[in-house]
Structure formats: structure tokens, C-alpha cells
Amino acid sequence: MNISTLSAKTADYKSVDIPVALYQNAMRRTADGKQTYFARPISRSHLTMLDIANDMVALGLNEGLTAEQIVSLWSTINNGVFDRVTNGCTVDGGLGTYGVKVSGTFETEGDTFSKERHRIDLSFKTGKTIKEQLSAFDVVIRQGNMAKPQIADVHDLESGGANRLTPGGYLEISGINLAICGTDPSVGLYFVNTADDSKTVRLEQGKIGANMPSRLACVVPATLEAGTYQVKIVTQFSKSDHIRKEPLSCVFDKTFEVVAPSV
Q1: Strands 170-176 and 150-156
Q2: pLDDT higher than threshold 80 for residue 261
Q3: Torsions phi, psi of 37, nearest 5?
Q4: Which of 63, 161, 168, 196 has a CB 3.0–4.6 Å from the CB of 155, allowing a cystine?
Q5: Do the bridges between strand 17-29 and strand 35-41 make them parallel or antiparallel, or are there none, so unpaired?
């Protein structure tokens, strides 16, 4: 935790280094054909609202509220924002502006919305003040030219990609260096339960339908229990003819909900 950014209601941001890793850009090369790379921040951990609330309590910024009360209030505010944006408003939340976006192609002027062809999601546009504060930060390259697997998108066909996983449904994962292979017992595609690791489910290589460097496809395990999950890949894939000696892993930074079936 960067104490200096949380020590006041209006934080005085000072220049700090944001650690990133570089990955090969499979879609773009320089004019003379040389490989280019893109940067992605190195994730230190996955936090929840409760973690942030505990930070506030530890620093005395809780105004007499418990961490649980802060989370409850935060959830209520989120519900209010969601209600407004789904009724056609944009909401400035301080860090930026929230809204709703619809993606997908409409074939004619009279075409209708289809959950099979179109997707609804929240949009976020960084606010001017935050952009100015971010300009004080620097980036330091901690890992260069990584062959690490990189997940670009996870799409659940049944839910239309709406941040949900459907047990028994079809799942597609796109990115680079994704092919799952190797003899290490840790190799596989993981559905990581963020609250209870005992509920995490691993798919081994033989249960993954499409298993290519740029694309994976599988059936979401029917054994997934209700809860919040992240998608994780562990592989010894290498672009050479030999598998990598040590497995590499990648955890997608978004979370997905598994909802208990209605009775």
C-alpha cells in the first residue's frame, strides 16, 4: 500500500515507480518488421472493498465507521451508481465517469438487440484531475520481453461475457502464449475461487478443447460452486521445440461470478 496516497482525503501524489512487464505484441511490428512490445502493470495482489476499508481503518480515515460499515456504504453507493447509469445517466465518481456501453454490430437501422451478437458493459473514463495526478508517476520495467502467457479476454458464451461463468457452458480465452502443455503437475487451466481456495477447480490439458497459443476453449466445469472466480493459466509452453523447464502462470485481472442455480 502506498501510504502517501491514502494518508489524506485529498491525497498529495508524489512521483513513484509503477512496475510493469513487457510482452510481445503479436499484432504489431515496426516498419522494418522488428518485434514490438506492450507493457502491463505487474499485479501484486487481488484486493476487495474490504481490503481498502481495512486500510482506511488502519490509517484512521474511517470517521468512526467499522470496515464492514464502510463496505456496506460502498455497496449502497455502487448500487445507486448502477441504477443511474442503467437509466441513461453518466456519473462522475471522482476517479472518473461511469456510463453504459453497448458493443456489437447492428446490421440494419431496424435491427434489434441480441444477446448472442451484442454485449452490455459499464464504461469508465478517467477524470481530468486523476490524469493530472497520474502524470507525476513514472514507469519502471521490471520484466522485459516476457514469454509469459498473457490473457487478453475471457468470454462466457452463455452469459454473453457479462462477467459471469456458466457451469457446463462454453468458454473462450484469447491472448498470447496460452497453449497449456508440460509435465509439471501444476500445469492446467484454473478457476480460482477468490474466497475459498478449496473450491478452486483445475482443468488438465486433456479437458481443454481448443488449445492454441492464441486461443483456448473449454467447457466451464459443472462442479464450480457459487462464488467469485478468477481465471488462471499455468503452462510450460515455449515457442521453441522444447517445453519450458519451469512453469509460467498468468491470472486474468477481472473476476467472474458463478451464480447458484435457481430451485
Answers
A1: antiparallel
A2: no
A3: -135, 155
A4: 161
A5: antiparallel
- At residue 13, the pLDDT reads 47
DSSP state of 30: -
End-to-end CA distance of the chain: 43
d(CA 166, CA 226) in angstroms, rounded, equals 10
C-alpha cell at 232: 488462471
For the beta carbon of residue 222, count every other beta carbon within 10 angstroms. 10
pLDDT digits (tens, 9 = 90+) for 146-202: 567 888 889 999 888 678 999 999 999 998 889 999 999 999 999 999 999 999 999
Q: What is the 3-state secondary structure (H, E, C) of 171-210?
A: EEEEEECCCCCCCCCCCEEEEEECCCHHHCEEECHHHEEE
Please name the amino acid found at residue 105: T
Residue 12 to residues 4, 16, 51, 72, Cα–Cα distance (Å): 7, 12, 21, 27
- Residue 224: DSSP 8-state: P
Q: Provide the H-helix boundaries in the chain.
A: 3-6, 49-58, 67-85, 128-134
Predicted local distance difference test score (pLDDT) of residue 54? 94
Cell numbers placing 36: 514490438
Please name which of 227, 233, 263, 226 lies closest in space to residue 248, comparing C-alpha atoms. Answer: 233
As given in the structure block, the three cell numbers for residue 80 are: 445507486
Pairing of the two strands 138-146 and 17-29: parallel
State how far the Cα of 201 lies from the Cα of 229, in Å rounded to an integer. Answer: 10
Is 16 in contact with 116 (CB distance < 8 Å)? no
Report angle CA 141, 94, 76 to the nearest 5 degrees.
115
- CA–CA distances in Å: residue 87 to residues 81, 111, 186: 10, 21, 46
CA quadruple 112, 115, 116, 120: dihedral sign: positive
The CA distance from 30 to 96, in Å, is 34
